[in-house]
């Protein structure tokens, strides 16, 4: 039986990472200084990951949705020395218009994309392009496109890790199989009513992306929060039959761990995604070699596996997500 486009993209990310990392060779950390990263949906969450890591490294990098820059250009472009557009298709209307606003203000623009066709519309406003040549997913849902474009920007931000990232590219496809097997076993034929993703630091944006994947691929309600913020109101909606997934960072685990214990007592199915075993909690363990090279990208692969497992349990075709198109145009009312 032929694999779906979704499964093909999910299980073949490593080569896309390897090819994408070649795009980092023409860029340096200084190319991200005082930059505004923008994207729509998944691409915006990618921009948030990069912004957080960049700021942690002392670089002035901010992130915003493309639509906000399109609608409020003076607010967002006033202090930007450069605009970086993340757009898998290079055909997103909001990205084009944001790029046009940047061009009228003399702000140089870089396009990060998986589309090598320079005739597509966002190319018109780009001064430079960073291409993930094998990142396209072949369908509406962003999987390896997200992780490979993220690897481009992580490689620019952290040049000292590029060799480790190349090694991670050789391992990630095997991890994808392991993660999918794990979540298929955990979910079985009883998909959760709702999924709550928790992540702090750069992993908050990964949690947002994970919630989006479960929403669009498995048509399941999903939310995302900073771990300790979840206590301040949202936890009131937690019910048995819900799943709570935390992306664990060892340096802050002592403060966050009690939250999972509370969620478990309320009857939720608690899952940790971590580099080490978590006592008393179902845990998908990330290989240290992968996590140390590119934790956000690897954690995203784990969340993609969960979305596929839930979709399978609900007999949902991930290749045909409801109301979505690969270039995120306005939904067609009759299709």
Key attributes of the depicted protein:
10 strands, disordered C terminus, Rossmann fold, single chain, five-stranded parallel sheet, 335 residues, alpha/beta
Count up the helices: 11
Bulk shape:
globular
- The ordered string of helix (H) and strand (E) elements is HHEHEHHEHEEHHEHEEHEEH
Largest sheet strand order: 2-1-3-4-5
Write the layout of secondary structure elements.
Blueprint: H1 5-11, H2 14-22, E1 35-39, H3 42-56, E2 61-65, H4 66-71, H5 73-77, E3 82-86, H6 93-104, E4 109-113, E5 128-131, H7 144-157, H8 162-187, E6 194-198, H9 203-218, E7 221-225, E8 242-247, H10 253-265, E9 269-274, E10 282-285, H11 288-313
Parallel strand pairs: 1-2, 1-3, 3-4, 4-5, 6-7, 6-8, 8-9, 9-10
Task: Describe what you observe in this structure.
- This protein has 335 residues and is of the alpha/beta class.
- The chain folds into 2 domains: 5-157, Rossmann fold (3-Layer(aba) Sandwich); 165-313, Rossmann fold, CATH 3.40.50.
- Helix content is 44%, strand content 15%.
- It has a 5-stranded parallel beta sheet, sandwiched between helices.
- α2 runs parallel beside α7 (144-157), α3 (42-56) packs parallel to α7 (144-157) and α8 (162-187) runs parallel beside α11.
- Mean pLDDT is 91; it is low at 330-335.
